[in-house]
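Researcher: I've got a protein sequence and the SMILES for adenosine-5'-triphosphate. Could you write out the 3D structure of the bound complex as structure tokens? I'd like something to compare against our soaking experiments later this week.
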Amino acid sequence: MALLETRKLTAFYRDFQALFGIDTRLEAGETVAIIGANGAGKSTYLKAITGLLGGEPESVWFDGKPIGALAPAEIMQLGISMVPEGRRLFPSMTVEENLLIGNYGRSVPGHWSIEAIFELFPRLRERRHQSSTTLSGGEQQMTAIGRALMSNPRVLLCDEISLGLAPIVIRDIYQALPRIKATGTSVMLVEQDIVQAMKVADRIYCFQEGRISLTGNPSALTREQIHVAYFGS
Amino acid sequence: MIGWIDTVIQGVLLGGLYALFAVGLSLIFGIMRLVNLAHGDLIVLAAFVILVISRALGLNIFVALVLAAPILFGIGYALQHFLLNRTLGRDILPPLLVTFGLSIIVQNGLLEAFSADSRRLDADALETASIALGGGLAVGVMPLMTLVSAVAVIFALNYLFYRLPLGRAFRATSDDPEIAQLMGVDNRRIFALAMGLAMVVTAIAALYLGTRATFDPSIGPARLLYAFEAVIIGGLGSLWGTLAGGVIIGLAQTIGAHINPEWQILAGHVAFLVVLVLRPRGLFPRAVD
Ligand SMILES: Nc1ncnc2c1ncn2[C@@H]1O[C@H](COP(=O)(O)OP(=O)(O)OP(=O)(O)O)[C@@H](O)[C@H]1O
Ligand SMILES: [Mg+2]
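Model: Sure. Here is the predicted complex with adenosine-5'-triphosphate in place.
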């Protein structure tokens, strides 16, 4: 049984259908990447898992239980945490406060604490009392990742953590991934940067217009296959 | 000269009362962007609750306040949970209409239950007690306690907001309700707690309202107006700004009255308009919004 599973997951924005029966699995300890063009439904998929869209109970399963109809706060308490698209830090709060709010709903023993986050991203320690609005893009992303880790999640969902960042900053952020995985957290990564995604993922799903167009192990997939799945033929 | 100094002191102390009126309003607006048009009537309701408890049990009004606080917290929580939460959304009109309706219901309910007679909360010996400042000046103990209470309430709320996890949840919900949920914050519960808290502050305001002058079921809307002006003068979202706003209105009123007794109320409103013209976003606007 997979740790996190979606079964025939659909999503609507009013009468616009964004997802058409998405079946995905994330095993414990695995890192899975979701790739796909703009508007393919990647963020919608992550939002649906976190409960922000509200859906059918049996469309999302976590640890053997249907969670598709639970409220976002309840899903977070079970151990699913998200780094949202666009970072979305709390603007009235300092870096430290943004981290501290991360385990508001779920406080379980585990590797991650504010100290551990500062070890992972040392630049945040110097800026801990700084308003989150004054951070660079990279520092904001580090804070958003730290905030999501504070609850010691079992599953970490990341929505385009490299978007808009310089290559050297992307490298810093991606270097944190192995250390996050080492704590036993499974990772679901939405990424437009295909090269980056292929490097870290055990498996990928490619989304196209709300459907899965390709899935497999990165090393087993050809450029051709990915190109077709990404852009359509 | 003594007359003027006295006027200024009285004005600042009166500002404490207006700040207490305004803090509940400011709190609710800050956290859930809800303009509670029933706020003034809820202050009057709280005054009646304190009155009933102190009469029925023969208690000092301060003891009655301690008993009234949890009751009013419950009323606020229930009000938000069962009624106001359903009105919140993208559209700002439903909450305005519903709280306006609530204002009418509370007024009429109180009128039905307590008649239009003027009432007072009796603070016994404290009412006339005063502290001599020398040079012929004296401040009343109750007005002084009003200002001190306002400062204490704002200190306590700021401690909650900036030091305690629950306060961080309040701020998270205010900043970004969608993302707050991803932190495990249940926004609706947060809103209900905030309204409960606002009602406790309202109870404190009501005690000083009822000891300073008489009250009856019809005086709520005017208190709402003072509260509203104090909040706007201070700048939305800053409680110390709200205190400053209350003090400015209090000062304007006592100074106006000192010049001509008929100008008291008008001077307060004029001060509000002047600040609005000079600083449209208030004296201490929030940096982020
Ligand atoms: N709040 C919304 N209301 C209406 N339509 C929406 C909303 N959010 C997303 N959509 C639509 O749903 C589809 C999928 O959007 P989604 O944000 O999931 O795509 P994405 O794969 O994350 O794209 P990107 O790579 O640009 O972030 C798009 O066609 C988008 O226009
Ligand atoms: Mg997206």
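Model: The pocket of adenosine-5'-triphosphate (ligand 1) is lined by residues A 13, 16, 18, 36, 38-44, 85, 192 (CB under 6 Å). The first strand of chain B starts at residue 130 and ends at 134.
Researcher: Great, I'll pass this along to the crystallography team.
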